[in-house]
């Protein structure tokens, strides 16, 4: 049996599709809140047990994982330690897949300190012999429900001129949520992987400038740019924060526009066959979705 947190979420939905496409015949237990819509789960044709519970409760998590051989945790790095504590109280779990983030590598991201602390506290479970695999997605995109590329799409559609930091030279390697579903599934099908963690990135790297140009191309719109140096962008973000009384803090977001966020997925390809699809095709699909929503 596989126990999964976050199966009803964004990338979790694509993992569900992987189970369907691969005609998975084993039992799946899905942790959900009482208010969660579960129609897609019940209509999947899979052997799914819907388990209502509180992800913040170690006792609920213990009952959730008891009897499972594999656990896939998609519902946030902040719940990892409680989940591992619950798993430590049962005997059935043989492989744990934790979906964390490449944000842990950022030299700017304030939360990266929290991510690192969580993983340091995980060490006691590794020392105890738990078979853990950490998957680290890059910037996630794939449809207008994402909180990343969809924002750029809306900006290109709305603004006559796109502002850039340092001519948009910062490099990114976004990963399609569809590819994440594939990565989660394939990693779960391997009982023991040789590495503790794997970066799950998209097909290729590109600059933010190229990303904005591609969005415009798929919209049929010529994108015009105005570039500002990093120091000016940071100054403006600090001014906004000051004028808003600290309610609007964009400083870190501006700083990260100048930070390369490129990570190889080759180890994941080598060890469990992860193969991301074309970035351009995924972006074009998402822009098309936006255009159709705007017409509706």
Q: Helical percent range?
A: 40-55%
Average predicted local confidence, pLDDT: 93
The percent range for strand residues is 15-25%
Low-confidence stretches: none
Number of helix segments? Answer: 12
Structural class: alpha/beta
Q: Biggest sheet: strands side by side, in what order?
A: 3-2-1-4-5-6-11
Instruction: Write down how many β-strands occur, each being a DSSP E stretch of 2 or more residues.
Output: 13
Biggest β-sheet, characterized?
A: 7 strands, parallel
Shape: globular
Rg (C-alpha, Å) = 20 Å
H/E element string? EHEHEHEHEHEEHEEEHEEHEHHHH
Terminal Cα span:
42 Å
| Multimer state | single chain
Overview of this structure, please?
The termini are far apart. The protein is globular and about 60 Å long. Helix 6 (about 150-160) crosses helix 12 (about 280-295). The chain is built from twelve helices and 13 strands. Helix 1 links the parallel strand 1 (about 1-5) and strand 2 (about 25-30). The strands form four sheets. Strands 3-2-1-4-5-6-11 form a seven-stranded parallel sheet, with helices on one face. Strands 7-10 form a two-stranded parallel ribbon. The protein is α/β, with parallel strands linked by helices.
């Amino acid at each position: 049996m596989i126990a999964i947190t976050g199966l009803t979420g964004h990338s979790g939905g694509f993992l569900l599709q992987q189970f369907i496409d691969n005609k998975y015949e084993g039992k799946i237990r899905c942790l959900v809140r009482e208010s969660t819509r579960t129609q897609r789960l019940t209509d999947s044709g899979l052997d799914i047990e819907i388990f209502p519970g509180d992800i913040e409760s170690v006792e609920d998590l213990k009952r959730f994982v008891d009897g499972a051989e594999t656990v896939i945790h998609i519902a946030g790095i902040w719940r990892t330690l409680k989940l591992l504590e619950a798993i430590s109280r049962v005997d059935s779990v043989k492989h744990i897949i934790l979906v964390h983030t490449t944000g842990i590598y950022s030299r700017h991201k304030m939360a990266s300190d929290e991510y690192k602390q969580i993983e340091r506290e995980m060490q006691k479970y590794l020392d105890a012999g738990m078979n853990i695999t950490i998957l680290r997605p890059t910037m996630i995109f794939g449809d207008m429900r994402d909180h990343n590329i969809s924002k750029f799409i809306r900006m290109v559609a709305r603004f006559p001129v796109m502002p850039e930091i340092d001519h948009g030279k910062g490099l990114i390697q976004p990963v399609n949520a569809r590819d994440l579903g594939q990565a989660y599934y394939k990693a779960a099908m391997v009982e023991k992987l040789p590495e503790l963690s794997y970066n799950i990135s998209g097909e290729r790297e590109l600059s933010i400038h190229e990303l904005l140009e591609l969005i415009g191309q798929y919209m049929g719109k010529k994108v015009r740019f105005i570039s500002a140096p990093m120091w000016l962008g940071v100054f403006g973000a600090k001014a906004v924060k000051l004028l808003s009384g600290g309610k609007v803090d964009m400083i870190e977001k501006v700083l990260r526009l100048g930070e390369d966020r490129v990570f190889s997925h080759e180890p994941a390809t080598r060890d469990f066959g992860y193969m991301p699809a074309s970035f351009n095709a995924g972006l074009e699909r998402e822009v098309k979705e936006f255009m159709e929503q705007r017409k509706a």
